[in-house]
Protein 1
Amino acid sequence: MKILVTGSAGFIGFFTVQALLKQGHQVIGIDNLNDYYDVNLKQARLEFLERFCVENGYDEEYRFLKVNIADREAMAEFFKQYEFDRVIHLAAQAGVRYSIENPNAYVDSNVVGFVNVLEGCRQQKTAHLVYASSSSVYGMNTKIPFSTDDRVDFPISLYAATKKSNELMAHTYSHLYNIPTTGLRFFTVYGPWGRPDMAYFSFTKKILNGETIDVFNHGQMERDFTYIDDIVEGVVRVMDYVPQSQQTEITSAQAPYKIYNIGNNQPITLERFINAIESATDKKAVRNNLPMQPGDVPRTYADVSDLMEDVGFKPSTEIEEGIQKFVDWYRIQNQ
Ligand SMILES: NC(=O)c1ccc[n+]([C@@H]2O[C@H](COP(=O)([O-])OP(=O)(O)OC[C@H]3O[C@@H](n4cnc5c(N)ncnc54)[C@H](O)[C@@H]3O)[C@@H](O)[C@H]2O)c1
């Protein structure tokens, strides 16, 4: 199949492209290589992908184009030039805290950009759009584990609000134009080649350098940390599971629309997470305990029964194993 992966220079996109090529698909990756975090890391991922294609004979199957999904004309032109059997939409302005500093980046990439992707899919009658949502849509929900049947009407960051609005807009396009869409609520993804703005990355850097780490909510936060390979396996399996038109219990609207959680289904405390980094680095962390930050949620915990039922898979990598792989990669990069 011909597949579009948006955000292909990003952490999850980079691994998704490799998995799709290994399965024999043709892939076009797009990304605007913005400088939200170190552009060298995005470039390094792109260079790795090029080498990966040459070494494995995929050079004819993969192409990268620099495109800003928020640019309406450029996106309309792009969708005129290339046709896709599937669209995997991962490009977004990520990060909860940055949405307090720079809300416009979220509106541009996550709202305008998302509509441009939907419009491209409408034009082409794409057979399945799979897009990244986020566990942050659950906000400060207290019922656990978080289920896709729960209400998610109370976002506590603009980032979460844009992800929830993606789900709403996807439903509209599924209903009006019969475009099958699947939203994936990812739960804190980590691993080699990961994002420098995330805590595990900066903790590792600081612990290795003997610097103090800021531990919010005194280490009592819980996260359903999900290893990158598990996320990619979920994305690729879901891509082949095209939702059929259906009604939910509470609406008479018909739409080929689905939402899944992809999380480890096993929340762990920040404390255990830091211990995992300490043992992988063989160094003790110097902690600065602090209160909770605005926009942060105390706990995330995924109910993945739907995912298991439909695609026969649930993430299972233990945090100690995943963190060890991250730290090994980090050490090689920073030798
Ligand atoms: N990593 C996580 O823990 C996590 C958790 C929940 C949801 N998500 C979602 O998963 C998706 C992928 O996340 P990631 O961790 O790989 O993040 P990432 O920032 O590494 O990747 C996103 C990529 O999208 C690109 N991008 C952003 N705006 C763009 C634009 N306007 N035009 C073109 N490209 C643009 C960026 O340059 C980046 O390379 C995002 O939608 C994110 O919101 C990630």
Protein 2
Amino acid sequence: MGLDVRNGYQGDIPFSKYPDFSQQGYQVIQELGRNSEAGRTTYLAQALKTDQRVVIKEFRFANAIPDLSGLKAYEREIQILQQLNHSRIPRYVDAFETSAGFYMLQEYKNAPSLGLKRNFEPEEVKQIAISILEILIYLQQQVDPIIHRDIKPENLLVDEQLNAYLVDFGLAQHKGAKMTLSSLAAGTPGFMPPEEHFGYPLTEASDLYSLGATLICLLTRTRSGDINKLIDAKYRLNFQQKLSPQISPYFKAWLMKMVAQKRQHRYANAAVALAALKPIAVISNDTGLETLFAAVKSRRKSFVFGLATIGTLAIAGKIFMIAQSAAINKQVLEASESQNLKPNFHRLDKNRH
Ligand SMILES: Nc1ncnc2c1ncn2[C@@H]1O[C@H](COP(=O)(O)OP(=O)(O)OP(=O)(O)O)[C@@H](O)[C@H]1O
Ligand SMILES: [Mg+2]
């Protein structure tokens, strides 16, 4: 074998900057993510015998502090992944230990994450939203519903056909689980629902907030690290002005309801949010009537005025439009009202990447 000189390393032993898992039967291909603070690195690896691709998540022992329930972060993640059986959630494969740490193996989903710079048309964003809501419905239909707690662009992979995959169940918990000190407000600032800041019980609507924030990032072409730019002095996600004017007021109202500050003003769960989203036209076909509805924003007075005007139009033979539009009008009003509430929570420092 010839002399190999690479990266300043001399000798005939292959040099790799990645950990050596050959004893366990895997070879690392690339690093997928690193959270130095938390002592976690995620690798894409290949099984030496079968060529099967897996994701190896490394948890360094130095950082493995058990939470109050006595479980370490990786034990919780394994427990949850093992219970799940969905084609768009990675399956748990295996786990092993070395002197350096604990390693969890899961199925590799071959699709780029939404954390990468990718531009989607509004119609495509709706398709992605539907695909994610389907996964959330599955999680919420478990006997003890599961709340993911870290929905954000980096933890969602989307393929060419716009199928979404949900990864990183490191913070996931059952709805009924007690909040422990270490799990309190552990999500990602900007994507974390207000109730989590307070340590209030999380519900199915909590993941809807994070999904809404993610979709708003896609529509406004905001990188997740810049989501603060959309948060106003009252800690609300103030994105309306940043949306393309072609986005219909109905879709805007749906998004506003997803990220309402109070969880009781959001859709109750993913199934309700999906049913509301499906019939919505994402792009405004600007009949003039829609612009009128959009003008009906936060004041009941203008809402009544809007209805009266629509009533006049109905006399001109557009009765069918009234029923549909009044319902949407109400939705816009509700969403606006829920956005106007004054939350009194304090933002916590970023503790997750
Ligand atoms: N099963 C998978 N298939 C494909 N890619 C994955 C998979 N799991 C994770 N990834 C990619 O690796 C990245 C890091 O993994 P993961 O989010 O699980 O680790 P993490 O340590 O919790 O990271 P962070 O703290 O940054 O969220 C993800 O953002 C995603 O892009
Ligand atoms: Mg992650």
